[in-house]
Amino acid sequence: MRHLLDTQHLSRAEAIEILDVAEDMADTQRREVKKLPTLRGKTVVNLFFEDSTRTRISFEAAAKRLSADVINFSAKGSSVSKGESLQDTAQTLQAMGADAVVIRHGASGAPRTLATSGWITAGVVNAGDGTHEHPTQALLDAFTIRKRLFGDDSRGRGLDGIRVTIVGDVLHSRVARSNVWLLHTLGAHVTLVAPPTLVPQDVSGWPIEVDYDLDHAIAAGPDALMMLRIQLERMSAAYFPTEREYSRRYGLDARRLAALPPDSIVMHPGPMNRGLEISAEAADSPRSTVLEQVTNGVSVRMAVLYLLLAGERPHTEKEDLR
Fold first, then answer.
1. What region holds the Aspartate/ornithine carbamoyltransferase carbamoyl-P binding domain (predicted)?
2. Range of the domain at 123
3. 82 is in an annotated binding site
4. 156 assigned binding-site residue
């Protein structure tokens, strides 16, 4: 794997390989000593042009547990805030000897520009670009679904026949876009639920169904219900009458939680707006995977960095990881 820029162009075999390596990584994280020597001598740069807590810390933890050197680069207070271009920043990182660059950027397509520009030789991982994609979030979501539903029998498996319903602010959500493509590639059936104003204008080419009624979608019995954060900071217009009205029609409250099938799981990529798209009862219930998603994110990002910087696993190393 040279770069990870999106999930739309990941093959089923590539996606399952990442999930399986993440299983290996998760196994190592249950040991007393969690650190592996695999990427010793490699340098990973976290290049964040947008604020982030979970994703940046998760990538930092993943790189350090693989023994890589980590450089955290925040655009605020840096040369970028003084007008430095992405090209100049990239060439600075190249001069520092970066082996991998994890980039979050407000402009859709910035990671692909970085990867294909010739400015750097490092591998590029997209940690979220505009409203385009967030591939590692989708991978950790798929990993979480697979682990919850199949347990120890999950290695080598896709999500064939699994029904996933994604609810909320799809319009502004790069997480939703990455999940749509990855879940479809893994064989899942995906339904989007949102007010018409929060569904992208043309989703005719997406491998999904659209439902505007959350109660109807819950009655269909999804295996996983993923609630999206309402991204008020990206909204420049009134996409729904009031927050209270949105919560009434599209929020996961105790009543809707009780209406879900007994084995279905509740997901949220975080950070959560409790009381808006998800109630405290739902967020803290035993069927919630919110904290598991955070834990699994480290294992998945370890797998991505491993495959990016160490390539295919030789047989002996695979055995050591397990």
1. 2-146
2. 12-134+294-321
3. yes
4. no
